[in-house]
Amino acid sequence: MRSIPEVPLIINGEKIRSKSDVWQDVVNPANQEVVARVPFATLDEVDQAVASAKEAFKTWRNSGQGTRMRVMLKLQQLVRENATKLAELITLEHGKTLPDAEGEVGRGLEVIEHACSIVSLQLGEYAENAASGIDVYTLNQPLGVCAGITAFNFPIMLPCFMFPIAVACGNTFVLKPSEQDPSSSLFLAELALEAGLPPGVLNVVHGGPEVANRLCEHPDIKAVSFIGSTRVGTEIYRRSSNAGKRCQAMMGAKNHCVILPDADKEVALNQLVGAAFGAAGQRCMATSVAVMVGKTKEWLDDFVERSKKLKVNVGTDRAADLGPLVSPAARERVRGLIQSGIDEGAELLLDGRDITVEGYENGNFVGPTIFAGVKAEMRIYQEEIFGPVLCVVCVDTLDEAIEFINANPNGNGVAIFTQSGGDARYFQNNVDVGQIGINIPIPVPVAWFSFTGSRGSKLGDLGPNGKQAVSFWTQTKSITARWTHHAQGVNTTIKME
């Protein structure tokens, strides 16, 4: 009989078996094979993790920036050396193709490399003689115990959006990865400990809403970062804010891609295919709406033919373009939304509902699906499908495209394909979306720039990565100081000269 691995918790630097009575199967989405079992940690175990982080903060906050930098340097080396294993774990439990998983590890590594610059990122400001004999300076100090709650779709990249910068700034951390694919996140945490993080600086707990709620409301946690669905993110933000914590919640999206008639047709269509259907559409930055302007609607037949050529298969097949959805429930939800599009009158140009993969008949596969004639009131436009489904909207002008996009409540990402610098500039200045791609369909910036989703896609003022992440994970203290060599007379004013 095959032994099924049990996913441990990490508390105070040790891997421990949870005492929980509630365990969940971790399932390979390509064949429904149980590959691990993950515990839903008890609230006592969550409290132990927080207490460990609180104790570790007493010394870690005073560690030298150089010490923290060297840990990040070692971590990036270990992640690089173990990139293949990390990608294989992602594919095993999430289902995305190995090349896509390797790309995810690379994006996570980019954030760790950025954290290696903490000695300059965390600098304060100083003004000598800001007033006569008075110096003013700021300190960017760590907050304390922080927490991160991540979604299933990027089990390496999303934790990297959180704990590397947080601990590099001198905080300690409790991570709750998705219970659907926890093994790669856990292995990443193990590498961080191997890199030199002291016991208690990084802890890992698993579970569902009860565990997440405890992290949001725990009195010793100072800040919470969340990436996932709008429904969950709204609740996380509400609970954390009500408990007096700093919170960032990066949430759902409906990302549009505008194609103008002067665009390079080959580039635009090929990029759109990849952005719409890569990772089986399970990306918060996936292109889920194509806005065809003017005569570009005549390119739809060509786009459909290109999409038909995509290979759907198990993620370990390196020739596959997209793998399965993460769970049977996700598959049924996507299939249901496709049916709703048909029922509401959208034109189904390509139907991926009945695809099967030989040898993996039980897999959660949905092939590329394309709807034309989509209206703003339809469910397939209103809801984030999180599957390989593209809605196509046709308009006559760029202004109509901008008006249509701005009417959508989400603001995660948007793209435009054009060869006109003037149109691109007009678009970026008038579209109300936080991240814009010009001839780039998925506009996630490099890690030393902040992730700047906006409107309904984000709660909180500061996003992950870049300067905003350092601001989120630190508190600024301003010091106004006067040192003199002689006694001063009484001064009852606050005037500075």
Automatic annotation (TrEMBL):
Superkingdom, natural source: Bacteria
Keyword Oxidoreductase: yes
UniProt EC number: 1.2.1.27
Alphabetical GO biological process terms: L-valine catabolic process; thymine catabolic process
GO molecular-function terms, A-Z: methylmalonate-semialdehyde dehydrogenase (acylating, NAD) activity
Listed SUPFAM superfamilies: ALDH-like (SSF53720)
Pfam families linked to this entry: Aldedh
InterPro entries the record matches: Ald_DH/histidinol_DH, Ald_DH_C, Ald_DH_CS_CYS, Ald_DH_N, Aldehyde_DH_dom, MeMal-semiAld_DH
Keywords: NAD, Oxidoreductase
Record carries keyword Membrane: no
Domain Aldehyde dehydrogenase: 22-479
The protein's enzyme class: oxidoreductase
PANTHER family associated with the record: MALONATE-SEMIALDEHYDE DEHYDROGENASE, METHYLMALONATE-SEMIALDEHYDE DEHYDROGENASE [ACYLATING], MITOCHONDRIAL
NCBIfam families for the chain: MMSDH
Protein name as annotated: methylmalonate-semialdehyde dehydrogenase (CoA acylating)
Originating organism: Advenella faeciporci
